[in-house]
Amino acid sequence: ASDHSLAGRHALVTAGPTVEPLDPVRFLSNHSSGKQGYAIAAALAARGAKVTLISGPVTLSVPAGVVCVKVQTAREMLGVCEAALPAEIAVCTAAVSDWRAKAAAQGKIKKTSEGPPVLELVENPDILATLCRLANRPKLIVGFAAETDDVLDNAVAKRQRKGCDWLVANDVRRGVFGADRNLVSLITETGIETWPEMDKSQVAGKLAQRISDVFVSSIP
Ligand code: C5P
User: Ligand 1 centre from 129 Cα, in Å?
Assistant: First the structure.
């Protein structure tokens, strides 16, 4: 039997890296396969949600029933998220570049005898934190955090700092980048649950189930 527990709900999912140009041929970016975010988009759509997937460049195909908007930069990603509102749910899995070039060079930066160029960087907007502070904020906002040390302490602090409802802490000590399996803990307002290592598609299914529980039980 098909699950329509999220029918009528709109979910935003950010996924993949952002790419910040330095000049026409070079960029600043992050490692991100997009696999976990795409799997979450698929799992929410499978429960009947209308899903807008806002994705940086990845090589994955768009899951069935999902509307995907491809972007390059953090500022584009934020702009598309804001334009796609209202939504009841936002899941921010994107590996957003913390910085961009203050001004991308118009032409290719040349190698000269004066040595390497000095790059002036400026901070990118924090998409997750921005969504959390909007007047028309999605009711349930889920952030992700890739951590290598003090995973849970850092993740609990990050949930507070960003202002999101839930935070999925990713233990990246064991090379989850590009992998098919993931080891996560879910931090909510009521506590911390560590899930066994499982496929990213299973993490997505379990998270989508938890999200639909919230909407079925308490939110009109
Ligand atoms: O601070 P950190 O980058 O570890 O936070 C990770 C969480 O914040 C993820 O959910 C990520 O998608 C989101 N994020 C964002 N915009 C940024 C930086 C991070 O949405 N500029």
Answer: 8
Q: Does the interface ipTM go beyond 0.95?
A: yes
* Residue linked to tokens 């140009």: 21
Q: Whose CA is nearest to atom 6 of ligand 1?
A: 145
Answer yes or no: are the C-beta atoms of 159 and 146 closer than 8 Å.
Answer: no
Nearest Cα neighbor of 66 from 1, 140, 131, 13 is: 13
When computed from its CA atoms, the radius of gyration of the chain, rounded to whole angstroms, is 18
Tell whether omega for the bond before 86 is within 30 degrees of 0, i.e. cis: yes
Q: Is the CB of residue 109 less than 8 Å from the CB of residue 26?
A: yes
Name, in order, each residue with C-beta under 8 angstroms of 110's C-beta and a sequence gap of 6 or more.
none
**Regions of the chain where pLDDT drops below 50:** none
Per-residue 3-state assignment (H helix, E strand, C coil) for 134-146: CCCCCCEEEEEEE
Q: Of 41, 14, 58, give the one whose Cα is nearest residue 177.
A: 58
What is the CA(152)–ligand 1 centre distance, in A? 16
- DSSP strand pairing (19-23 vs 66-70): unpaired
Q: Amino acid identity, residue 10?
A: H
DSSP bridge partners of 170: 146, 184
Count of CB atoms situated within 10 Å of the CB of 158: 18
The residue ranges of DSSP E strands in 71-108, in sequence order, are 89-92, 99-101
DSSP-derived pairing of the beta strands 66-70 and 121-123: unpaired
DSSP state of 106: S
